[in-house]
Design brief:
- By secondary structure, the protein is α+β, with helices and mostly antiparallel strands.
- Helices cover 40% and strands 16% of the residues.
- The chain has eight helices and six strands.
- It has helices spanning 15-33, 49-55, 61-74, 128-134, 154-168, 174-189, 195-198, 220-232; strands spanning 79-80, 84-88, 95-105, 111-120, 138-141, 146-151.
- Strands 1-2-3-4-6-5 form a six-stranded antiparallel sheet.
- A hairpin with a 4-residue loop joins strand 5 and strand 6 (146-151).
- Helix 1 packs across helix 8.
Length: 235
């Protein structure tokens, strides 16, 4: 079997490993529920700019250019890998990622998605389908209480977030929002007034919008087994 097509190893975990993982996860859950994480995600350390320049030396032109523009406005990034550069809490964004490799995207005009940006935002479940109709680059993570969007520039990401908000609040349908995106991105790229692409038209939440959902597993035998695993691990 091709290595890329191998099945996940989950069925090979022993009973002890499964219960120990569950025990650690439950204790970690309890700690996080009692912790205020606002402004504490990621790291506040920065990467030396010379390291960044060496890293992006052979990156595609667009990814290199966007990285340099992010540094110009937000300073050194907080983290890097061979294929990503990351900022935490840069300007209005909770997180920004520049990817070495992009994905072709033809809406609203042909470009490459390689700049992903996140905000704290709660999207009601019944609005998720309408937002999915808006465009494929918007990603809703209800558990983390985040929405992310990826495009090739920050103006386009800001525009998509504004349209997402107007769908959530009922101001526009997905179809109307798509038309507004086409209008505003044209104005933005032509250096004409484009308020929806220039700044957020709504107040960002002042704290995380995490949604942990509710517990539905009530099996007593399982819970007793997990408690036994906790004792074995001295949790």
């Amino acid at each position: 079997m091709n290595e890329q097509n191998k099945q996940p190893y989950a069925d090979q975990l022993s009973a002890q490993e499964r219960l120990q993982t569950a025990a650690i996860a439950m204790e970690s859950n309890k700690l996080l529920h009692a912790t205020d994480m606002n402004g504490k995600r990621g790291t506040n350390t920065t990467v030396d700019l010379q390291v960044v320049e060496e890293l992006i030396q052979d990156w595609p032109t667009l990814s290199k250019k966007v990285t340099q523009k992010m540094i110009e406005f937000y300073g050194p990034p907080n983290d890097t890998t061979h294929s990503t550069i990351v900022w935490y809490y840069n300007g209005p964004w909770k997180k920004t990622i520049v990817y070495k490799e992009g994905v072709p995207h033809d809406f609203p005009e042909p470009h490459v998605d390689m700049l992903e940006q996140f905000i704290d935002y709660h999207v009601p479940a019944y609005k998720a389908g309408e937002i999915a109709k808006l465009e494929g680059s918007l990603v809703i993570d209800r558990t983390r209480g985040e929405v992310s969007v990826h495009c090739d520039n920050e103006g386009a990401n800001t525009l998509s977030m504004n349209m997402m908000h107007e769908i959530v609040t009922g101001k526009r349908t997905a179809e109307e929002a798509r038309e507004k995106i086409a209008e505003q991105i044209t104005e933005f790229l032509m250096n004409r007034p484009a308020p929806y692409a220039e700044k957020f038209q709504f107040e960002l939440p002042q704290k995380e919008q995490v949604d942990p959902d509710v517990t539905i597993v009530k099996d007593e035998e399982l819970m007793q087994a997990v408690e036994s695993a906790k004792k074995e691990l001295n949790l």
